[in-house]
């Protein structure tokens, strides 16, 4: 039994519908899939219904962006199998609103350089809980200025050091972890190597604040993975793997199922649920 426990749909910044993701997972014979959209659980009920149709197990989840107050750096936190979703609203709704407000401000700045249509970008976002970078870049690509979503132009314009970048204030990671536990969820730190969060993971693991670590992910280096596995085993934490699949909106081209969670750890998650 194996599962890919990290992917994104059109309800956040992925290019695929939930049905497309689950159909894909079925065709590559995954046993379980978690659709973990950014700061929203809009696709969870749909995923569960489609999982029954395609005969694939669904691990309910979402991924929240938080901030480490000690470093100011972002930390992505996965929440699996929450028993109640209402407590999560105080995080998801605020972050989604702030994300959209920031993108709208970026679009106003972009109008100085491009004849971009705010209405078109909002339409590209569609059912997404917020406006994300790929929606903005699609607006620029459709004007003929680029043929890629992620690349030098995105970095130049709306990346962290971009000329039109507007920062987002993310919630404190400790507060978010508490809220996820209040919701009855299982808390897993996503790809800690990306934001140099391994010291924080050590602290959270030692303090019994988390249930698992996403050890297998393309943004973790080999050395990161080895250290994360050591921390997880020393603290009896669940070890997960996920591709972080975004479809055509992926920064790196990894097919669904590239990184997975093994049988033993899947069973621990399912037992928790």
UniProtKB/TrEMBL annotation:
Coiled coil: none annotated. One of its GO terms (molecular function) is 5'-3' RNA exonuclease activity. It holds the Pfam family PHP. InterPro entries: PHP_dom, PHP_domain, Pol/His_phosphatase_N, Pol/histidinol_Pase-like. SMART domains: POLIIIAc. Residues 3-68 form the Polymerase/histidinol phosphatase N-terminal domain. PANTHER family: EXONUCLEASE, POLYMERASE_HISTIDINOL PHOSPHATASE N-TERMINAL DOMAIN-CONTAINING PROTEIN. This is PHP domain-containing protein. It comes from Diplocloster agilis.
């Amino acid at each position: 039994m194996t599962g890919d426990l990290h992917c994104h749909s059109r309800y956040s910044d992925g290019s695929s519908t939930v049905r497309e993701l689950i159909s894909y997972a079925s065709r590559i014979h995954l046993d379980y899939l978690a659709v973990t959209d950014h700061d929203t659980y809009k696709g969870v009920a749909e995923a569960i219904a489609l999982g029954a149709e395609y005969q694939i197990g669904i691990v309910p989840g979402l991924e929240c962006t938080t901030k480490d107050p000690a470093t100011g750096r972002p930390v992505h936190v996965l929440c699996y199998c929450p028993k109640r979703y209402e407590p999560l609203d105080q995080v998801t709704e605020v972050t989604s609103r702030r994300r959209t407000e920031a993108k709208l401000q970026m679009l106003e700045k972009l109008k100085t350089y491009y004849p971009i249509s705010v209405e078109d970008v909002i339409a590209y976002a569609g059912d997404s809980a917020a406006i994300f970078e790929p929606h903005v870049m699609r607006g620029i690509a459709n004007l003929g200025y680029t043929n890629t979503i992620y690349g030098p132009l995105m970095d130049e314009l709306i990346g962290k050091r971009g000329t039109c970048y507007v920062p987002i204030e993310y919630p404190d990671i400790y507060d978010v972890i508490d809220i996820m536990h209040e919701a009855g969820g299982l808390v897993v730190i996503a790809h800690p190597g990306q934001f140099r969060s391994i010291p924080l993971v050590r602290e959270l693991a030692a303090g019994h604040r988390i249930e698992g670590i996403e050890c297998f992910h393309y943004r973790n280096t080999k050395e990161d993975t080895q250290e994360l596995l050591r921390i997880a085993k020393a603290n009896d934490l669940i070890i997960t793997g996920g591709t972080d699949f975004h479809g055509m909106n992926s920064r790196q081209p990894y097919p669904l199922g590239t990184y997975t969670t093994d049988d033993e750890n899947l069973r621990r998650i399912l037992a928790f649920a």
